[in-house]
Amino acid sequence: MAKHVPIRMCVACRKRRPKGELLRILLMPEGFRLDPTGKLPGRGAYVCPDNPECWTEKKLRRFAGARARALSEALVTLLGGTDGQNTHLPAG
Ligand SMILES: [Zn+2]
């Protein structure tokens, strides 16, 4: 019996994957916030947590525009950085 699995699309590479395999990005009026738990209320977008290509500013620009750089840095910090402390993005 197939269980229903929600499918979401990565905003960087546009690949469709089960929601649980993707990292949620919460869309806030003042910017983005990474939501590794996937449980924060609000509108979300998704990105591959296992593909550094999807964390690059260039790939994120279509989705995040001027904030792509801050989002990229936050993703690298959370997923690929040495200290995972900064999951809050500076506004603007
Ligand atoms: Zn991706």
TrEMBL record:
Residues 8-66 form the YlxR domain. Keywords: Ribonucleoprotein, Ribosomal protein. This is 50S ribosomal protein L7. GO terms for cellular component: ribosome. It holds the Pfam family YlxR. The keyword Phosphoprotein does not apply. InterPro entries: YlxR, YlxR-like_sf, YlxR_dom. It comes from Thermus scotoductus.
